[in-house]
Amino acid sequence: xxxxxxxxxxxxxxxxxxxxxxxxxxxxxxxxxxxxxxxxxxxxxxxxxxxxxxxxxxxxxxxxxxxxxxxxxxxxxxxxxxxxxxxxxxxxxxxxxxxxxxxxxxxxxxxxxxxxxxxxxxxxxxxxxxxxxxxxxxxxxxxxxxxxxxxxxxxxxxxxxxxxxxxxxxxxxxxxxxxxxxxxxxxxxxxxxxxxxxxxxxxxxxxxxxxxxxxxxxxxxxxxxxxxxxxxxxxxxxxxxxxxxxxxxxxxxxxxxxxxxxxxxxxxxxxxxxxxxxxxxxxxxxxxxxxxxxxxxxxxxxxxxxxxxxxxxxxxxxxxxxxxxxxxxxxxxxxxxxxxxxxxxxxxxxxxxxxxxxxxxx
Length: 362
Hints:
Shape: elongated
Helix content: 55-70%
Strand content: under 5%
Order of helices and strands: EEHHHHHHHHHHHH
Oligomer: single chain
Number of strands: 2
């Protein structure tokens, strides 16, 4: 008598009956894989939701009222709101009729309501809008970082940055349109894998490009600032650190998805950038405020300018920048006028102060 196969209760099969009477055989491992996928991706999006919501609250509470009307604050806060809504809708997907066991295995979505379809289409639109605001924020900060460069180099960097950002937004828009069509019709004329991969790659390249510009420009500026003996930890060091962080961590997540089978790991790339951008602004602005609070103390800035030499440094004259017009009384008091000899600080070093001022205005 031949040996009968050993029964494995962990791999047994059960049968679902569809609406038209067709039998659907499902194994326990298939059911486990479906449940595990739903749990993993729900945790992923819930973590993104919580992190974005916390940063949004911190940004609203810690940003000064006069800074809330700046373009960078509006763009960063809007990106956080969009990411909160996107993550929330993603979580609702796995608690709705799309993720019911019978609907998933039988592909019977007859009980899915119109609002459920609309919420899924909204997710694709929010994903594109989120990328659009992230790229806008990066472009705006590129203008600030490169404000002291020569016009020729600025035009080159602006043109390349705009092209790279536009390419990423265009691929994401195409993917959103095709995703929306697939959600409504529940079928696609071609595989969306290559389009999704192209959108993820262009997004990663865009983020790496912007971060590389930040790191190189600010790294050179930090090196040159040593000539002025400005070695304290300040806003430029903060932007440099956050630029490296914005470059490395999202790039790691964008590469992981091709080697580690984690569901929706690519969605973390935009979430990380959306979180890091306002964090760097808050940190840098706080550092600037601390520097300004310490500025009147001679011990902290005596190497750069002193009370007896403000008229000859070319930086501050009677609490005014050199670009501010001097009144006749101020000229008489300080003994300084526009016809005086040039400042002993080189033109190249003045660009470093312009870097600091531009970073603070951002």
